[in-house]
Amino acid sequence: MDGTLVDTEPYWIEAEYALVAQFGGTWTEEDSRRLIGNALMTSAEYLRDRGGVDLPLVDIVHRMQAHVIDRVDRVANWQPGARQLLAELRAAGVPQALVTMSWTPLAQAVLRHLPPGTFDVVVTGDQVTHGKPHPEPYTTAARRLGVQPAACVAIEDSPTGIASAEAAGAVTFAVPHLVAIPGAPGRTVVDSLTDLTVAILARAVEEQSVGVSEQRT
Question: In the predicted model, what is the mean pLDDT of residues 166-190?
């Protein structure tokens, strides 16, 4: 969600700088980059230890997310091609899962800007025990969709998210946003969601399925 569908990263970065400054700490662009795609409790721990934010971790998450929700409620900055691809998938009858490390209130704030029923399944960071890069978020989404992860395409903008999807066994497409993502076997890197269509995603799943079959034989 964050960075892949909606450009919320500037909102998160605003929240980080403001919170660290409130506690008299220092923060850098590199610190912000380290948090992209992380589970929110992991990011909160970093803000406490590196930024000097002397609060319980849950309180850090709530303060950060409240800032981002306020911004999203005003303006949801959709990434190029995001709404079009979601609509195309929905029209084609492809089940969709939103897999985000943001917690439920922020996911709901983003979903308010989309047609009802866009996503069949929503997996948020407060619903899983292990966040990205652990595979649990994606294995949970696949299970709720009633399919195997290998039958799914995951589209991510961060190395952490890509690692989670690949560990789960999903076909992965990387759309780098603020952090570079190198190509790798079984991974396709594109410049924008405008480069993707239902046909391209389906072909990637088919090609991976054929490759796995050939390896077994």
Answer: 91
